[in-house]
Amino acid sequence: MDLFARPNIPRLARALGFVTAALVLPIALSAAATAISQTPSSVLTAAKAAIAEQSGVHLVVTVKPSSSSATETVVGDWGTTSGMESFSLGKTTMTLEATPTYGYLSGNSAGLTSMFGLTAAQAKKVGKDWVSFKAGTSEYSDVVAGLTMSSAKNILPKAKGTKLSTEVAKGTKLYVLTWSVAATSSTPKLSYALTVSAVGKALPVEEIATASSGGKETVMFSKWGEHVVVSAPPASSTIAYPKISG
């Protein structure tokens, strides 16, 4: 069970079926502004503005729910209206893609069943093809919600309860935002640390989430502003979701 899954990043919610509280991601910080004493609120405001200007981002995620569990790896690219993410956990694989008109899913049998939740019979129907989700359906909305830049605004927390410090990594000054999510009857306490560039635009660099039970998730952000283009798979290699879910 995934300790870190959030609605804006479907890799985790679909992969291990667990959802925790969503995180939250106008004025870019200039070189002069970084000399002024900042607060969590001012850094968050600058980050929201900087992210809003971006056309895309590349992310690499590693998730290890416990010290004894295998590590899940996710590589993704989010664009303004299109995006993609590829998941791998040992030999289990799955890929999600989104275009303005359709969402697509492919994977091996283990990925389709354990990560996406299809039955063995449904996965057999899909085989090596892509499942398609038409725009306007709830399934399409679920896929697209976590694969485009609309998700990027959910990277940062609310200012209340967030602490701010600074550090220098490889000669570059960074802001470090830390906060926690209290334990519930079904989840352990989660502690977060997000580094944001303190030079130029206040864009996220890395987020690390740790659970009191020992799990850990790391998200690396790069290529802010990239142009993401997703090409639809050949029609002959797709199968409409209603044909396998009905």
Indicate the proportion of strand residues.
Answer: 25-35%
Q: What is the succession of H and E elements?
A: HHEEEEEHHEHEEEEEEH
> What helical percentage do the residues reach?
10-25%
Shape verdict: globular
Explain how this protein is built:
This protein is an alpha+beta fold and 246 residues long. The protein is built from six helices and twelve strands. It has a single domain, classed as Clam (outer membrane lipoprotein receptor (LolB), chain A), CATH 2.50.20. Strands 7-8-9-10-11-1-2-3-4-5-6-12 form a twelve-stranded mixed beta sheet. The radius of gyration is 19 Å and the shape is globular. The two termini are 28 Å apart. The N terminus is likely disordered.
